[in-house]
Amino acid sequence: MEYMTKELEAYGIGSGQHDFLLVLYHKDGISQENLARMLKVSKATSTRAIQNLEKEGYVYRQRDENDLRAYKVYLTEKGKEMRDIIFEKLVSFIDILFSDFTPEEKEIFRLLTRKAALKFFEPGFEPPSEKLNDIQ
């Protein structure tokens, strides 16, 4: 989301990288592979994002004790401190987005978005790639 990219640029957080932090705020210590799977991005994209966040001091990686080929990703103190800033920026964006909505429209949108999000995060859910190309 371009808005968040611009808002977080000064903090060294690049395009889409705040999504990785948002997941880690709920599941700190998740494997790098599961992180990529949850965000529906390639392992290469995930690796680049995590490397950048690590370089900026927001996360660190540690070998998985159960699988020495894999890494788990953890928030640093700096990463944890970014939580409030990221949520503040998201709330500002949402306020702008919904500024012309009535309270009833906001509630309907919230319910529909929740329903769609639950489907999106179902294990194994993969949107058909040809339909995604039609949207873009």
From TrEMBL:
Keywords: DNA-binding, Transcription, Transcription regulation. Residues 1-118 form the HTH marR-type domain. SMART domains: HTH_MARR. InterPro entries: HTH_MarR-typ (IPR000835), WH-like_DNA-bd_sf (IPR036388), WH_DNA-bd_sf (IPR036390). GO terms for molecular function: DNA binding; DNA-binding transcription factor activity. This is Transcriptional regulator, MarR family. It comes from Methanosarcina horonobensis HB-1 = JCM 15518.
